Amino acid sequence: MPTIVPVILCGGSGTRLWPRSRVAKPKPFLPLVGDNTLFEAALARCPASGGFAAPFVVTGRQHVDHVEAQLGEASEGQVIVEPSARNTAAAIALAANRLPEDAVMLVCPSDHHIGNAEAFTEAACAAADLAAEGWLVSFGIEATAPETGFGYLKRGDAISQGAYRTAQFVEKPDLERAKAFLAEGIYAWNGGIFAFRVKEFLEELATHRPQIAAGVAAAVAKGTEDGRRFHPDADIFAAVPSDSVDYAVMENTARAAMVPVDMSWSDIGNWHALHEALDRDADGNSIRGSASVDMVDCRNVLVDSDGPRVSVIGLEDVIVVVDGDDIMITTIAGVQKVGKLSGAVNQ
Amino acid sequence: MPTIVPVILCGGSGTRLWPRSRVAKPKPFLPLVGDNTLFEAALARCPASGGFAAPFVVTGRQHVDHVEAQLGEASEGQVIVEPSARNTAAAIALAANRLPEDAVMLVCPSDHHIGNAEAFTEAACAAADLAAEGWLVSFGIEATAPETGFGYLKRGDAISQGAYRTAQFVEKPDLERAKAFLAEGIYAWNGGIFAFRVKEFLEELATHRPQIAAGVAAAVAKGTEDGRRFHPDADIFAAVPSDSVDYAVMENTARAAMVPVDMSWSDIGNWHALHEALDRDADGNSIRGSASVDMVDCRNVLVDSDGPRVSVIGLEDVIVVVDGDDIMITTIAGVQKVGKLSGAVNQ
Predict the structure, then answer these.
(1) Which element (helix H / strand E) includes A180?
(2) pLDDT tens digits, one per residue of B274-291
(3) Scanning every residue of chain A, which has its alpha carbon at the shortest distance from the alpha carbon of B308?
(4) Do residue B256 and residue B281 come from a single domain?
C-alpha cells in the first residue's frame, strides 16, 4: 500500500443545521454525533498508527482557528488557508501542488459521519492501491434509500476485486429515477471521497481545466509559509475559476474508477439526517446535549438543547433545537427549509 | 339595583398553563389575553363608575403581594388573606362575614376571560336583582361546545324575564352526555360566578354546612385588621372543612336560580383554551410576547416566547411556550397533560 496523505476539505455555510451550526462555527467543528466533532472524527479515521501520513487540511481564513484548535498541537498536520472559496477542484489542487508527484491523496470532506470506520479504512486502502496505478478513484457509497439529494456513480467493468471503472456520473436524480437506481443495484452515492495520485490528478486537471491547474500552481508558487500554515497568493487564487472536482475532472477523465463501500455513511445534510445517525430509543426519539428533556407521547422526535429544559407532549416526526437565543422547531418534512429561515439567512 | 360588592377569588396552582404560569405567579396575575392580567380584567369589569362597590379580594398569603400590586393604591378594595386554602365555600363565607347582611356579593373567579364585558354587566345586574329577592344565583354560561371539563346547570322554570330556577347541578359529563346537553339547549356551563345576598348565603351555609359557617364566623371574629388587609384567625380557619360552594350550598339549597349569559367566556383552563381566546391570523396562528417569531408552513400554532427567537416550520395544532429556562411544546391534543409534566409538578 502506498503512503496515503489525507486531504481534509474543511468549510461549510452553517445554514442547514442552523441554529446549532452557525456561519461562525459550522458543521465540521461541532460534536454532532458522539463526543468528537465531525472534523476530529475525519482526522481520527486516518491515524498515523494506521499508516496514514500527516494530514493536509484545506480551509478558509474564517475557520483556521477552529481547525488548529481541533487539529491538536501534537499533530504534524499542515493547514492550507484558502484566501477565497474556489470550490473543490482548486482546493484539492492546492494540496496536490504542495505534495510530491507520487503521493496518493485521500480527499475527505470534514462534515460527514461514517459509522463503520473499518469499512472506511478497507476502502481507503483499496482506493489508494488503484490510485497508485494511475486511476482517479471515487468512493462509491452503497445507496440504501432513493435519495434525491446526492449525485450517483454508475458501476462499470471490473478492474480487480472490489474495484470498477466508473461508467457514468449522474446528477441528482428525481425520486422516480432514484428509486430505479436503488432497484438496479449498480448505482452508488457520490459522497465526495476520492483517492488520487498527485501526478495523475494534476495531469487530468491540466488537460480538462488548464486555467485552474495553472492558476493554482502559480498561487502556490507565490505563496508563503507561516508555521504549519500555508497561504497561497490571494490575488492569483482569486482569479482561479470556481468548479467542483466532479465537473472539472471526474466527469471528463478516462481514468475514473470506483471502490464500492458500505460504511454507515451520512452527509448529515440536514436535521433529519442527523437524527437518523443518532442512537434512538424504542419510540425513535433521541436527545442531544446535557439539558433536561421530558418527552410524553412522542415518536421520532429529536431534542437538542444547549441549556433550557425542554418538555414535549404528543409530537411526532419533529426536531427541536435550542441554541443560545434561538429555538428552531421543524417537522421532518420541513427540514429542507431550515436553511431558508430568516435566522439562518441573516447570520 | 342593589349595590353589588365584587368578591374576587384569587388563587391558582400554576400547572395547567405551565411554564408561563408558575406556582409563584399563577394565572390570575399574568397578562394572558391583552395587556391586562386576568385579575386586573376581573376588577375592571366591576368599576365604581358602573355602580359597583369597592371589591373584596380573597386570596392566599403567597399571592397577597401580586394582589396588592395589581389592585392599585387608589382602590378602596379590601384583601382577605386566607391563612390556608379551604376551597370556595369558606372563601366566600369569609367575605360574607365581613359584610352587612343586606349586601349583595358578586362572586367572581379571577382567572377567567370574558370577551363581552357588556353582557357580563347586564347579567350581573340581573343576578343581583334576583339575589336581593333571596335567590342564590349562578351565571349560566351559554354552552358553545360539548365540553367535558365543566359542570353544567340545567335550566328550570322561569322566575322572571331572563331568570330561571336551577333544576339540576350536573357534574362534568362524558362526551356523549355533553353532546346531548348541547343539543338539548337547556344546559349551561357552571363558570363559578354567583350572586348572593349575605343573609341568605350565610343562612343556607349554616343549614347545609354548619361547621363551615360556624368555623368561618369564629375565624373572622378573632381576626385582625392590618390596613386594607384582613387576617382571619389561622388556627380556627385551619379547622374549617374544605368544600366547594357548589357541593356545600348550591346543590342543596331550594333557592338556586340561574341567569343565562352569552359573554364569550373562557376559563383559559389550558393552552388550547388560551389559543382560542387570542386573535389569530388567517392560518389560525397567533404570537404572544415581543420575541421574534418566524413561522413557515404552520397552521393553528401558538408561539409565546419571553425572549428567545422562535423559528417554526411545518407544525399544525401545536403550542410553543418559552419561559425563562423552560421550553414547553405540546400538541393541542396533549394540552391536558401539561400540568403533569415534571417541570409543572416539581416547581
Answers:
(1) helix A175-184
(2) 999 999 999 999 999 889
(3) A325
(4) no
Asked if residue B66 and residue B20 are part of one domain, the reply reads yes
> Which three cell numbers, joined as nine digits, stand for A73?
498541537
Q: Measure CB to CB from residue A331 to each of B313, B327, B342 and give the nearest one.
A: B313
Question: Hey, which residues does A187 pair with through a beta bridge?
Answer: A154
One-letter amino acid of B325: D
Number of separate helices (H) and strands (E) present in chain B: 11, 19
pLDDT, tens digit, 9 for 90 and up, residues A243-260:
999 999 999 999 999 999
Question: CA A17 to CA A7: how far, in whole Å?
Answer: 24
For position A216, which CATH number holds? 3.90.550.10
CA-based nearest residue to A33, from A302, A278, A305: A278
User: Within this chain, do residues A139 and A125 fall inside the same structural domain, yes or no?
Assistant: yes
ipTM, interface predicted TM-score of the complex: 0.89
Q: Taking CB atoms and an 8 Å cutoff, what residues of chain B touch A329?
A: 310-313, 315, 318, 320, 329
Residue type, A13: S
Distance CA B132, CA B4 (A): 10
Q: Are residues A21 and A64 in the same domain?
A: yes
* Torsional sign, CA A161, A167, A172, A175: negative
Per DSSP, helices labelled H in B98-136 are 117-132
With beta carbons less than 8 A apart as the criterion, state whether B32 and B274 touch: yes
User: Contacts of residue B294 in chain A, CB cutoff 8 Å?
Assistant: 341-343
The HSE-up count of residue B193 (CA atoms within 13 Å, CB side) is 31
Nearest-angstrom CA–CA distance, B338 and B233:
36
Residues B153 and B91 in one domain: yes
Q: Which stretch of A3-17, A46-60, A95-109 has the lowest confidence by average pLDDT?
A: A3-17
Single-letter amino acid, residue A56: F
